[in-house]
Amino acid sequence: MTPSKLISIILARWSLVLLVVVLTTLTALGVSLSMKPKYVAAASVLIDAKPDPISALIYPGLASPSYMNTQVDVIASDRVALRVVKDLKLTDNPDVRQQWMAATGGQGSMEQWLASGLRGNMEVKPSKESNVLMVTYKSPEPEAAAAFANAFVRAYVGTTLELRVDPARQYAGYFEQQSKAALEKLEAAKSKLSAYEREHGILATDERMDIESSRLSELSSQLVAVQSVTAESNSRQGAAARGSDTLPDVLANPVVSSLKGELSRSEARLQELSTRYGDAHPQVIEAKASVADLRAKMAAEIRRVTGAVGVTNTINRQRESEIRAALEAQRAKVMKLKEARDEAAGLIREVDSAQRGYDSIATRLTQTNLESQSTQSNISILTEATTPLRPASPRVGLNTALAFVAGLVLAIGMALLLEMRDRKIRDADDVMALLQIPMLGVLPAPNKRPNKALPAAERRLLGHATRGAA
Questions:
Q1: For residues 231, 234, 240 and 243, what is the CA-based torsion angle, rounded to 10 degrees?
Q2: More exposed terminus of the chain, fewer Cβ within 10 Å: N or C?
Q3: DSSP SS3 for 337
Q4: In the predicted model, what is the mean pLDDT of residues 195-202?
Q5: What pLDDT is recorded for position 150?
Q6: Looking at the predicted structure, is the pLDDT value of residue 131 above 80?
């Protein structure tokens, strides 16, 4: 369909087109004027990306779209809406209660009904290039729109803080219990270590171990020295048993040496007297008696010296046995002390482990206590809503213009539909298209002079047709 034909159809049915356009426009205008005006107030909140001042941690995923979408869902949640109802004390308003009774008949929760209505009038839009959320509220009253918008952003800030503080309080209670258990475990480990130290007479240090080890080394050295002395005394006792005359102690004894000298002199004198006087001479007999007495004295002295060697050997052996027994006892004591020290070291490790566990839990408890008492969050109100001066809806001019355009489109559509159901010849092209015959000419409209602007061929055809008719 050509534009000229469309225009001809519209002109032919201009009354219908005008009627539809006027009715549509007037209807939209009437509806817009009859609608109750709606005011929209807007407030904005900023989600700060700075680290948490308590935990020094950056909020994870802050820059991701999912985080911002989560915050949008939080603002639009029942929890925030119920907090708005509570903060504004809407349940105490008689008019609001009357509306709830009329709408629900007193069935269900009034708070939930109010929260659902508030959520329907609230809208949240996140910024595409920043961490700002825009909260708008629509209400028939401008003051109410601003009040509810501000109430929503304040409730959102408070709810966000609660969502952060409530888990911290729960964790604080949990860590409080764990801290008490860890402290009891630490005290039990310390008590066990103290009791063990008292029972075994040891200290946590290595001082006593060093003393006992030094004593063991000293006894070992003494045993080696005594064993050497005992070996020597055994050798001397053996030599005494084989022949006391060659015993070094006998040879070195001054009494024995003196007696040997006197005996040698007495024997020499006896021999001289015997040679001179004979055996029966009184001097010889006296000399023999003196020699016998010296020999008896020397034998007695040798026996005394030899006996002293045996006594010394016995004493050395006894001392060796005593030192060996003391060494074995000291060695057993050191081994027992080492075992006790090793077990004490295990108890010390238990105490250290319990101390570290308690310190870790105490540190976490302190942090969670600080978090549970925090009054700051990473959400802050950027701008508060102000009372709107003009209603946001209805937009009378825009609605009327859109209705005019829609009515015009509808009128043209109706005209085309009627044209298709009742086809009429509107121009020369319709004659040829519908009748399938050649067109001889175009007659001018009644009471009008022939159109001089017609082509010459059409004027000739028109004249020929006129003469033929005559």
A1: -70
A2: C
A3: helix
A4: 74
A5: 94
A6: yes
Mean pLDDT of 195-210: 66
Asked if the bond preceding 394 is cis, omega within 30° of 0, the reply is yes
Give the C-alpha separation, 366 to 219, whole Å. Answer: 57
Among 3, 12, 14, smallest CA distance to 408 is for 14
What residue type is 171 in one-letter code?
A: Y
Which residue's entry shows tokens 């979408």?
69
CA quadruple 267, 272, 278, 284: dihedral sign = negative
Distance separating alpha carbons of residues 257 and 185, to the nearest angstrom = 82
Instruction: Give pLDDT, residue 295.
Output: 75
Q: Residue 429 above 70 pLDDT?
A: no
- Is-contact 101 112, C-beta < 8 A? no
Q: Write the DSSP string, 120-161.
A: HHEEEEE-SSSSEEEEEEEESSHHHHHHHHHHHHHHHHHHHH
Structure tokens at 257: 């040496």
Sorted by where each begins, the domain ranges of the chain are 35-174+374-398, 207-371
- In tens, the pLDDT along 272-291 reads 777 777 777 777 777 778 77
- Reduce the DSSP state of residue 311 to 3 states and report it: helix
Tell me which of 177 and 469 has the higher pLDDT: 177
Q: Which CATH architecture has domain 35-174+374-398?
A: 2-Layer Sandwich (3.30)
Is residue 36 exposed (0-12), middle (13-18) or buried (19+ Cβ within 10 Å)?
Answer: exposed
